[in-house]
């Protein structure tokens, strides 16, 4: 047994952050003990208990990162399960929920089983794979949702390839509803978004960048909400990044639709001005938004309207990023920077640690029906021990990911992971 002694315990279920101790037994949490309890002193004296002094540190459930791209199969030179797992452990992520936008796409039970085998053999953290919603993510023919679900698919998504045919998407939603499967969509109107790399406005115009209005997100979300209302399917928007989309999300919730939404950490901590020097590490999909939109998204996370905060980890090699801004590939890595970037919101007073952990761990676990995300008796011993105030300067050369395309290179950050445990086994620190 392991006793985490003297930590600040983050309980996202109860919404508390208080000092105490936590005891694990094998792969589960055995007890959460408040500070001052005589049981702590008794446990310290037991020979079968290994005590870890956590004075000055914070203990929380491991992060459940919904939407990680691991480039196996097809582009292993960008990221493998081995390197992604190591990066996740260093970042306090104990569960990676991986995307199916691989080459080939994860659209058959055979490919899904291959991915599961590689993940089990190579990754040091838990890996929960998602599957494509349509064949080859082409938006024309629905995958075998039932067979893929039986093979272990946690959800179904075509990622950033929007299913433009509403009849096909409705058929997918209806079939998923019959099987109680979760559909994850990328709310962006592809016609308006195609070929763009910035958010429309004076700033993009001055820099001569092709841009798209945030209304492209709102329009796609409105369509999706209508189809969800028609089919009563379970739906999750992978990224809501514009304040114009929030009323549609609120309306769907009021109408009783089973709808949740997420946002990537980069859209919570960066804005459109960050692309001013044409640095392609800041080229994301959807593009970075205005500061007003960013602040509205932070408030939506703090208020619970946006449920999930994730890394949207998207590794790209040097060749695909060292191009003119318009031609460069979109995306940024985020497994190791998710925690310190998210802690910026706490240090700025926008939210407290329990609220942040609700979005980082509890909500994604609940949405996918996973047992993690909790600091409670009987929960998995998936834990992160960290110092939320430890300062450092991010150096992308030190990242464990194969790809180094982080927009935080050279940034001053706070928050270092001291240890990560998966199923009671220490995988970092």
CATH topology of the largest domain: TIM Barrel
Largest sheet: 8 strands, mixed
Strand content: 15-25%
Helices and strands: which structural class? alpha/beta
Low-confidence stretches: none
Structural domains: how many: 2
CATH homologous superfamily identity of the largest domain: Metal-dependent hydrolases
Number of strands: 18
How many alpha or pi helices?
A: 14
Give the overall silhouette: globular
Domain Amidohydrolase: 357-428
Protein name: Dihydroorotase, multifunctional complex type
Domain Dihydroorotase catalytic: 59-242
Keywords: Pyrimidine biosynthesis, Zinc
Describe the protein's architecture and organization.
With 429 residues, this protein is an alpha/beta fold. The protein folds into two domains: 2-59 and 381-428, Urease, subunit C, domain 1 (Roll); 62-367, Alpha-Beta Barrel (TIM Barrel). Helix content is 31%, strand content 23%. The protein has helices spanning 38-45, 81-90, 109-122, 145-150, 166-178, 190-193, 202-206, 215-231, 246-254, 265-269, 291-303, 318-321, 338-347, 353-367; strands spanning 2-11, 16-25, 28-34, 50-53, 58-61, 63-68, 93-98, 126-129, 156-157, 182-185, 198-199, 211-212, 234-237, 259-264, 308-310, 383-393, 412-422, 425-428. Strands 1, 2, 3, 4, 5, 16, 17 and 18 form an eight-stranded mixed beta sheet that branches. Helix 5 packs across helix 8 (215-231) and helix 8 (215-231) runs parallel beside helix 9 (246-254). It is globular.
């Amino acid at each position: 047994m392991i006793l985490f002694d003297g930590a600040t315990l983050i309980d996202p279920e109860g919404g508390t952050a208080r000092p105490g101790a936590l005891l694990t037994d094998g792969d589960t949490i055995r007890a959460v003990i408040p500070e001052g309890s005589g049981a702590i002193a008794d446990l310290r004296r037991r020979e079968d208990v290994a005590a870890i002094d956590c004075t000055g540190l914070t203990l929380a459930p491991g992060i459940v990162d919904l939407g990680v791209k691991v480039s196996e199969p097809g582009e292993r030179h960008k990221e493998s399960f081995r390197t992604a797992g190591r990066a996740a452990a260093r970042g306090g992520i104990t569960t990676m929920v991986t995307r199916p936008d691989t080459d080939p796409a994860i659209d058959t039970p055979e490919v899904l089983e291959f991915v599961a085998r590689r993940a089990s053999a190579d990754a040091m953290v838990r890996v929960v794979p998602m599957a494509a919603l349509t064949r080859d993510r082409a938006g024309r023919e629905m995958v075998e949702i039932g067979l893929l679900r039986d093979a272990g698919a946690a959800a179904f998504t075509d990622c950033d390839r929007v299913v433009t045919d509403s009849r096909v998407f409705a058929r997918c939603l209806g079939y998923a509803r019959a099987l109680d499967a979760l559909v994850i969509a990328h709310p962006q109107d592809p016609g308006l978004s195609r070929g763009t790399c910035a958010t429309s406005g004076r700033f993009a115009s001055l820099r001569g960048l092709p841009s798209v209005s945030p209304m492209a997100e709102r329009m796609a979300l409105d369509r999706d909400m209508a189809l969800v209302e028609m089919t009563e399917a379970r739906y999750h928007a992978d990224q809501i990044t514009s304040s114009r989309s929030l009323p549609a999300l609120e309306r769907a919730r009021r109408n009783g639709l089973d709808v949740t939404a997420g946002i990537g950490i980069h859209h919570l901590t960066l804005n459109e001005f960050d692309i001013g020097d044409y640095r392609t590490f800041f080229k994301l999909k959807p593009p970075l938004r205005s500061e007003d939109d960013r602040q509205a998204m932070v408030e939506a996370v703090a208020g619970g309207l946006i449920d999930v905060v994730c890394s949207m980890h998207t590794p790209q090699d040097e060749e695909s990023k060292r191009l003119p801004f318009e031609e460069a590939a979109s995306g940024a890595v985020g497994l190791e920077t998710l925690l310190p970037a998210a802690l910026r919101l706490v240090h700025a007073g926008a939210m407290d640690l329990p609220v942040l952990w609700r979005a980082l761990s509890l909500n994604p676990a609940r949405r996918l029906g996973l047992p993690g995300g909790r600091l409670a008796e009987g929960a998995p011993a998936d834990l992160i021990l960290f110092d939320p105030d430890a300062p450092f300067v991010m150096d992308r050369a030190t990242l464990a990911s194969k790809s180094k395309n982080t927009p935080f290179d050279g940034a001053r950050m706070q928050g270092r992971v001291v240890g990560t445990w998966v199923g009671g086994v220490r995988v970092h620190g």
